[in-house]
Write a structure and sequence with these properties.
CATH class: Alpha Beta
Bound molecules: iron/sulfur cluster, zinc ion
Distance between the termini: 18 Å
CATH architecture: Alpha-Beta Barrel
Structural class: alpha/beta
Strand order of the largest sheet: 1-2-3-4-5-6-7-8
Largest sheet: 8 strands, mixed
Number of strands: 8
Length: 333
């Protein structure tokens, strides 16, 4: 799989961008209910894992810069982005990689970026667990009450991490590093991937539920991310050849229902209702997407318990039942 990912990645094109390009937008975030959030995506050299191979579903490579980006340039991006900031309670700082990787954003610049948003009640950054260590956490210690560290665990099953996602770390590493940050007073957000390639719909549902339970003690919030088909990825190749279908929205609902007791699992699918994103049928996509979103803000199980039926649900149930009979569950390593 690594060779295939590398071969696809070698053909991937980066978006042509000006030197200090930064993307921003606004959306809502489940934080103390429903709060306004400001999102900025900094353009850096990108995730070091891209340069090894990359995860099977990740196309963020296209948003990165071919050469390392200086701290000065990154601060210019932040200043540019700040012009669009209007005091949103939550600020999400993404960089198509790991905020805490010193080769993407040098340590001094990491601090300066967070200092740029003193009004924000919550600042969310993303990182792979390798970069959560004592030094990095101590450096950011002054911000711990406001800082949430988001980690893409994707799955708690090491076979899925290795053979479906090519994640490059184990669930144990995630647990160790997330616990380290949690014990020092930082908040943790964990991303779980629904339906990595090579899993049946049924296996995918069970895997996400197991992963949510696994990560629940160290996580303040768990974001269930149904796979969407991104350009120049192994998932896209499988999808093009008819070997992959993004998850059904019924599967998203199923995972949310069966983890609702945790009171911290949310989902905001990317490109829902489209062929490349989680979808059911045109007859129900809209109201299911709305219910998933409402549930994610309110955590009221009633919202997803009694959804109006749709013809396509019978098809989804048939698929799940067939898969239950035909495929064994995926074992741990
Ligand atoms: S999913 Fe995250 S860790 Fe994997 S290649 Fe993309 S940015 Fe890197
Ligand atoms: Zn339907």
């Amino acid at each position: 799989m690594i060779d295939q990912i590398r071969e696809i990645r070698a053909r991937a094109k980066r978006e042509e961008r000006p030197e200090d390009y930064v993307a921003t937008w606004k959306e809502y975030e489940p934080f103390k209910g429903k709060k306004r959030s400001f999102v900025l995506v900094l353009r850096t050299h990108g995730c070091f894992w891209f340069y090894h191979s990359g995860c099977s579903m990740c196309g963020y490579f296209s948003d990165t810069n071919p050469t390392p980006v200086s701290g000065k340039n990154i601060i210019t991006q932040v200043e540019k982005a700040r012009k669009f900031y209007s005091g949103e309670e939550v600020v999400k700082i993404y960089n198509s990689g790991s905020f805490l990787d010193p080769n993407e954003i040098d340590p001094d610049t990491q601090v300066k970026i967070i200092e740029s948003f003193p009004e924000a009640e919550r600042i969310i950054i993303e990182t792979r667990p390798e970069f959560i260590n004592e030094d990095n956490l101590d450096r950011l210690g002054d911000f711990k009450e406001r800082l949430m560290i988001a980690i893409g665990l994707e799955s708690s099953n090491d076979n899925v991490l290795k053979y479906s996602i090519n994640k490059g770390f184990t669930s144990l590493l995630y647990l160790e590093r997330a616990s380290m940050a949690k014990n020092k007073g930082f908040s943790i957000k964990t991303y779980i991937l629904l339906k990595p390639p090579f899993l049946t719909e049924h296996q995918a549902i069970e895997d996400s539920i197991n992963s949510a339970i696994f990560s629940s003690n160290v996580s303040d919030i768990i974001s269930l991310n149904p796979v969407n088909v991104q350009n120049f990825t192994l998932v896209e190749r499988l999808w093009n050849e008819g070997y992959y279908r993004p998850p059904w929205l019924w599967s998203v609902v199923e995972v949310l229902k069966r983890t609702s007791n945790l009171k911290k699992v949310v989902s905001f699918p990317t490109a829902p209702g489209s062929l490349r994103g989680a979808h059911n049928c045109k007859g129900c996509d809209d109201y299911i997407i709305r219910a998933i979103e409402d549930f994610s803000f309110e955590q009221d199980p009633e919202i997803i318990e009694n959804l109006p039926e749709c013809e396509c649900k019978k098809k989804w149930e048939k698929i799940i039942n067939f898969e239950k009979l035909s495929f064994t569950t995926i074992g741990d390593q």
